[in-house]
Every structure is written in structure tokens, then in C-alpha cells.
Specification:
The protein has 1 helix and 2 strands, in the order E-H-E. By secondary structure, it is an alpha+beta fold. The chain starts with 5 loop residues before the first strand and ends in a 10-residue tail after the last strand.
Length: 49
């Protein structure tokens, strides 16, 4: 487990925007933060994400 502060991007299904935000966060903030995304409802993966 990392000692870095955690940033969560939350949305309804975690199928598109929150995953893209997680990717950008990891790219630009990954050295300083642990970046994660999650959804509050079960949905399939958006193939455009």
C-alpha cells in the first residue's frame, strides 16, 4: 500500500469519464498521488473510454 494521498474519481457506472479522468490523473499526478476511479452502480465498460 502506498503512503501517497488518494484521489478518487467517482461516477454512476465508472464506464467512461471517470476512467478517463483516472488515466489523466495517473499520467500527470501519479508521482504524487494514488489515483483511482470507481462507480456506484454496476455497468459495462464503454468501448470508447
Amino acid at each position: 500500500m502506498s503512503n501517497k494521498p488518494v484521489i478518487y474519481f467517482l461516477c454512476t457506472g465508472n464506464s467512461c469519464r471517470s476512467q478517463m479522468a483516472e488515466g489523466f490523473g495517473k499520467k500527470y499526478l501519479g508521482d504524487q498521488f494514488e489515483v483511482l476511479s470507481a462507480g456506484i452502480e454496476a455497468h459495462g465498460l464503454n468501448p470508447n473510454a
